[in-house]
Write a structure and sequence with these properties.
two-stranded antiparallel sheet, globular
Length: about 150
């Protein structure tokens, strides 16, 4: 599933599906209208954008669930940040608090640190890194809290 390559944990699969238990808890709060990073096989909403029909060149509106491919997640984070006046976006991403993009974008949203290790569909174990939900377009920018699984 993953390799340590040049001192960095990487997944070869970029399309692991969000666990239903996590998504359903969040959908009760946010009432998502679109899955911004999905495929026909793993879409969480009836409206979704896929790799072939990329969200990156679209105008975002509604309430978006965003579980981006981690290999280029900064691009998706920036898109959600830039769309914060026209949409609400909830991103499930690694809590990489030591990176410039975390401070430039994520800290300007609301951050919910996930307590626990969600196991993505198709994985044997939960991710060996801390995860966070970053919310743009709603809530209190700069606020932080815990989200228990």
């Amino acid at each position: 599933m993953a390799d340590f390559d040049t001192n960095r944990f990487q997944s070869k699969n970029q399309s692991y599906e969000t666990p239903n238990s996590l998504y359903l808890k969040l959908d009760e709060i946010f009432h998502f209208t679109r899955d911004a990073c999905a495929s026909a096989e793993n879409a969480k909403c009836s409206q979704y954008w896929s790799e072939e029909n990329s969200c990156l060149d679209k105008e975002w509106d509604g309430v978006n669930w965003v579980n981006p491919p981690y290999k280029n997640m900064k691009t998706f984070i920036k898109k959600a940040f830039d769309s914060r006046d026209s949409s609400v976006s909830v991103l499930l991403i690694p809590a990489r608090t030591n990176t410039k993009w975390w401070h430039d974008y994520c800290m300007k949203g609301e951050v919910w640190f996930i307590c626990g290790r969600p196991k993505f569909k198709g994985c044997i174990h939960g991710l060996p890194q801390p995860l966070a939900l970053v919310i743009f377009g709603s809530g209190t920018p700069g606020a932080m809290k815990s989200f228990y699984l």
